[in-house]
Write a structure and sequence with these properties.
Elements: E1 21-25, H1 30-42, E2 47-50, H2 58-61, E3 71-74, E4 77-80, H3 82-92, H4 103-137, H5 144-164, H6 179-192, H7 195-201, H8 205-215, H9 218-227, H10 241-244
Parallel strand pairs: 1-2
Antiparallel strand pairs: 1-3, 3-4
The protein binds glutathione.
Length: 249
């Protein structure tokens, strides 16, 4: 049963003409794109500010004291941490409800969000994605040890997701997308851009059907158009990641 109410939530509202919503980030960031997807799905107009030239500078750290993106500014209310941002968006604005009303379905959605943060994003994007996509674009050789450690963790994550989709629903929780689906999509897209990811994903038909359903959503098409010009371009501030982020095995 699809338990997400079709009605707007009690506090949800349509944006007034004077309200402003701004997303700060860099264009190919997986977490930034979760926020852009959720805003697009809710039908909320927003401005995107590319922080790439200012990452780590005082003006960025004033918005995010942990030196990350995304950051949301809604009429002067500034918020960081993607899970907090997208719940706020869902509960503040009109549009399709993206959090199930049913407490167990909502718990399952939050389980996916926690799993993305702990088990999917780190190995698929932060490790494999950086070694295969981000560093080569900067002329930095990949560290094959990092890739080798990530691959079995990625295989396990894909097995878990493929099994979860045995429930036969179109999306991870219900017949309509929830925040869980929007959390998972950008990291799965990053994985699909790597040779190892392409090979592993080709063995997962249910994940393939889920990705096809997601890719057909107008919100996903709109965000893909926003990101497309930046694919394959160097992320200059990522030069620091070989010191700051890369695991030392
Ligand atoms: N816990 C944060 C994670 C955000 C995060 O890791 N963002 C990455 C981009 S996908 C970032 O800011 N990287 C920039 C850097 O580390 O220099 C959230 O949920 O928003």
């Amino acid at each position: 049963m699809d338990v997400i109410s079709a009605d707007a939530s009690i506090r949800a509202k349509t944006m007034s003409r004077t309200e402003t919503v701004t997303v700060y980030g860099f264009p190919v960031s997986t977490y930034v794109n979760i926020v852009r997807l959720v805003l697009s799905e809710k039908g909320v107009p927003f401005t995107f500010v590319d922080l790439e030239p200012r990452m780590g500078t005082p003006s960025h750290l004033a918005l995010h004291p942990f030196n990350r993106v995304p950051i949301l500014d809604h009429d002067g209310f500034v918020l960081y941490e993607t899970a907090a941002i997208v719940s706020y968006i869902d509960e503040t604005f009109d549009g399709p409800r993206l959090q199930p009303d049913d407490v167990r379905e909502r718990a399952r959605m939050n389980q996916w969000i926690g799993s993305l943060n702990s088990y999917y994003y780190p190995y698929m994007a932060f490790h494999l994605g950086h070694e295969r996509l981000v560093y080569p674009n900067l002329g930095i050789a990949p560290d094959e040890k990092v890739v080798a450690v990530a691959l079995p963790k990625i295989a396990n994550g894909l097995d878990v997701m493929e099994r979860a989709l045995e429930h036969g629903r179109k999306y991870l929780i219900a017949e309509r997308p929830t925040l869980a689906d929007f959390f998972m999509l950008p990291t799965m897209t990053t994985l699909s851009l790597t040779p190892e990811g392409q090979s592993m994903l080709s063995q997962k038909p249910r994940i393939g059907a889920w990705r096809a359903a997601m890719e057909a959503l107008p919100s996903v098409i709109a965000v893909r158009i926003m990101v497309a010009p930046h694919i394959g371009k160097p992320v200059e501030h990522a030069r620091n990641w070989i010191v700051d982020h890369r695991p030392k095995y």
